[in-house]
Design brief:
Structural class: alpha/beta
Strand content: 5-15%
InterPro entries: AAA+_ATPase (IPR003593), AAA_lid_NorR (IPR058031), CheY-like_superfamily (IPR011006), Homeodomain-like_sf (IPR009057), HTH_Fis (IPR002197), P-loop_NTPase (IPR027417), Sig_transdc_resp-reg_receiver (IPR001789), Sigma_54_int (IPR002078)
Coiled coil: 115-142
Shape: elongated
Radius of gyration: 30 Å
Number of strands: 14
CATH topology of the largest domain: Rossmann fold
Bound molecules: adenosine-5'-triphosphate
CATH superfamily of the largest domain: P-loop containing nucleotide triphosphate hydrolases
Helix content: 40-55%
Number of helices: 20
Organism: Luteitalea pratensis
Modified residues (4-aspartylphosphate): 55
Strand order of the largest sheet: 2-1-3-4-5
GO molecular function: ATP binding; sequence-specific DNA binding
CATH architecture of the largest domain: 3-Layer(aba) Sandwich
Length: 462
């Protein structure tokens, strides 16, 4: 897809000048023109504008005041000021107010073209810096597919549909990687050079959801001190990711449906529809068809977004991927914390395999960070695992042996305590027993009961 032409808005009361500028620029840009600052501001509210050429002397609101308002309301627009005369003071003021450049009306056509091109490039550069900054922040996000059939199927589906503009509905429990998958769809689509805008609808206060999504005009409600672009406009030429779509209020569901069907939105307090060009990816961990049955989610919207469904499996259902995920995370945090940790001992890994991972990959990643942070050896051992994970894993193991939950908790604590003591005593059982003031036979007995198998193996090997 060819990149959309940038839009230049000319504000000049001199018709001849407007025509000249239009003629010079229309080959490379979409050019709009108005004759007053007031019209300029209203145009700015209705259409997407990238660059502006402003006459300094205008009837009504003057060029400098217009510049100030543009800066205040639309930070991303680059402005070039044009004046009939060279007036150093005005030029200085214009630059101070944030104009990209100031020129007089006796400009050379090529010089003007070059100037506009440079302003446009500066804007691209700024966008690029912003998107690179976001990428650096997300640099840790190496997407791990693993070997499970379910994940392979999801990834192959994504590869097939990324380049289509169809809406993708990602479902999966919290922390299974829905946002990450959405980013991947964007990165593999023809919109990859455009922005990826993510909104978690459950995290936005309900009274702000509408203006967050659709933007608002200045003064449209108390607190709307300046015009604000909504996420739909910010996602222009890119991808809009709406997480927790099931949380959207019914009346906003209707507005979303219109945006999808007409590619048009209306800002809060706005009087005109605005064209938008976005690809939608939505996610939910709720059962949307159930929400439809209960009348909490519009059926027509459900069908409109459920074009390509992609289901991410829970981590407990793809345990075969645990090793690969853990490797990636351990490597990442070892590098970040400058630790020597390179892996995890089999016995510790076995505990993680028994654990149910209610928080899915997010929980695994946080746990890896915590384990690497506390581990000073080459391999993470059972002693580095947090007690609650050991307890939960032990519960899973002993659930059908009729032990009470209290007994399980006591056992998990005892096991963790003994492990730490053994680590400290470098696995010298006799020394550890002395340290704990326990008879050697008691310690050995408890180690056997608590399945400290790794230790038992070491003992045998010694
Ligand atoms: N396949 C993967 N490979 C590597 N890291 C992953 C993967 N999936 C998820 N993660 C990591 O797990 C964390 C949670 O992922 P993400 O935010 O995409 O989940 P989510 O399903 O959108 O969660 P929620 O429903 O809570 O918003 C992120 O930090 C992400 O980097």
């Amino acid at each position: 897809m060819a990149p959309a032409l940038k839009t230049i808005l000319i504000v000049d009361d001199d018709e001849g000048m407007r025509d000249t500028l239009m003629a010079i620029l229309k080959r490379d840009y979409r050019v709009l023109s108005v004759s007053s600052a007031e019209d300029g501001l209203s145009r700015l509210r209705q259409t997407r504008v990238d660059l502006m050429l402003l006459d300094v002397r205008l009837p009504g609101i003057g060029g400098l005041e217009l510049l100030r308002q543009v800066r205040e309301q639309r930070d991303e627009v680059e402005v070039i000021m044009i004046s009939a005369i060279t007036d150093v003071e005005t030029a200085v003021q214009a630059m101070k107010l944030g104009a990209y450049h100031y020129i007089t009306k006796e400009f050379d056509y090529d010089a003007l073209r070059a100037l506009v091109r440079n302003a446009s490039e500066r804007q691209d550069l700024r966008n690029r810096v912003e998107s690179l900054t976001a990428q650096v922040q997300a640099q840790d996000e190496e997407f791990v597919t693993g070997t499970s059939a379910t994940m392979k199927a999801v990834v192959s589906l994504v590869q097939k549909v990324a380049r289509l503009d169809s809406t993708v509905l990602i479902t999966g429990e919290s922390g299974t990687g829905k946002e990450m998958l959405a980013r991947r769809i964007h990165a593999e689509s023809d919109r990859r050079k455009g922005p990826f805008i993510a909104v978690n609808l459950a995290a936005v206060p309900s009274e702000l959801v509408e203006s967050t999504l659709f933007g608002h005009e200045r003064g449209s409600f108390t607190g709307a001190v300046r015009q604000q672009l909504g996420k739909f406009e910010l996602a222009n030429s890119g991808t809009l990711f709406l997480d927790e779509i099931g949380d959207l209020r019914l009346e906003l569901q209707a507005k979303l449906l219109r945006a999808i069907q007409e590619d048009e939105i209306e800002r809060v307090g706005g009087r005109h529809p605005i064209q938008v060009d976005f690809r939608l990816v939505v996610a939910t961990n709720a059962d949307l068809s159930e929400a439809v049955r209960q009348g909490r989610f519009r059926e027509d919207l459900f069908y409109r977004i459920n074009v390509i469904p992609a289901r991410l499996p829970a981590l407990r259902d793809r345990k075969e991927d645990l090793g690969q995920l853990l490797d990636v995370f351990i490597r990442r945090y070892a590098l970040r914390f400058r630790k020597v940790v390179r892996g995890i001992e089999p016995s510790a890994f076995a505990v993680l395999e028994r654990y149910a991972w209610p928080g899915n990959i997010r929980e695994l990643q946080n746990l890896a960070e915590r384990m690497v942070a506390v581990c000073d050896k080459a391999e993470i051992t059972e002693a580095d695992l947090p007690l609650e994970v050991q307890l939960a894993a032990l519960e899973a193991l002993t659930a059908d042996q009729g032990e009470s939950v209290l007994d399980q908790a006591v056992a998990a604590f005892e096991r963790s305590y003994l492990l730490k003591a053994l680590e400290k005593g470098e696995w010298n059982i006799a020394a550890t027993a002395r340290q704990l003031r326990l008879p050697l036979s008691t310690l050995k007995h408890r180690m056997g009961r608590l399945r400290l198998t790794d230790v038992t193996r070491r003992l045998r090997d010694a």
